[in-house]
Amino acid sequence: xxxxxxxxxxxxxxxxxxxxxxxxxxxxxxxxxxxxxxxxxxxxxxxxxxxxxxxxxxxxxxxxxxxxxxxxxxxxxxxxxxxxxxxxxxxxxxxxxxxxxxxxxxxxxxxxxxxxxxxxxxxxxxxxxxxxxxxxxxxxxxxxxxxxxxxxxxxxxxxxxxxxxxxxxxxxxxxxxxxxxxxxxxxxxxxxxxxxxxxxxxxxxx
Length: 206
Prior knowledge:
Layout: H1 13-56, H2 58-73, H3 80-94, H4 108-130, H5 134-150, H6 153-164, H7 182-205
Helix pairs in contact: 1-7, 2-5, 3-4, 5-7, 6-7
């Protein structure tokens, strides 16, 4: 009696293409998911670095802010004599190029107005130069203060000692009035960093 061999039916061309398409789609989906996760990880790390930088440089930012405010208060401004001198120099430079068409342009009132306008312009340029970057500085300080306000009492106490006062980690005083262990200080600073990150995330959503 002869043995009957049943051959498994091979999938046709259409079926192979369908299976191949499913595999490709699955691979693309997995690749897209991995890419999205990688992007999220990169953004998270960038946010963490920014939060850490703001906290660690908070004391320096405060010093820069106070210094710039002092400079803005005491910036030496120009006088009317300075403005008149500058106008005279400009007039001498333009002499011969300008044609006088009316006596009004040379009246005492018009001349006084020109001096006042020049003085205001000169002093505005000085103030803008001294205050350059001040708004950004204030914004960085505001973000850290917002983070401090969102921290628990213990975390805020430790974070302010380290980041605002410059206290060494081994000398940080706990709420009970005793020096804290370095491990606990490190844990609380990690919490402070997380709060700072949350504040930055909220600012991005506004």
